Amino acid sequence: MTAFALPSRLLPALLCAGLVLPGAIPAQAGDTHGKNGSVILRMCQSADKVKALSVMCHSYLDGYLDAAQHYAPGKTGYCLTDADRKRVPAAAMEWIGAHPESLKQPAGEVLQKALTAHFPCTGRK
Fold it and tell me: pTM of whole model > 0.90?
């Protein structure tokens, strides 16, 4: 019998994802609206304590940034350097914490507002 070989660096991530992700953020039946600000806050607040949540937080935010750049190049309202991308989780948590109404708003809308507030294009090269 031949076993499927995975690169050893992927095994811990896959195991964590399989054990933690299904129960990390409960899905709601009939939820067609997607994630909201509270989901982002919960994922990213616990990222320092739980490795799987760190992966989820960074992956979600990186996916948002990549999609925004692909579908609205130059029209996002925010400008990020490579160093800024590392600060996005903290900036998002700070903005959400200062705007409690964002907890129930769609995640994309919340991230757009947070990034525009923290990383405006005006005055940047």
Answer: no
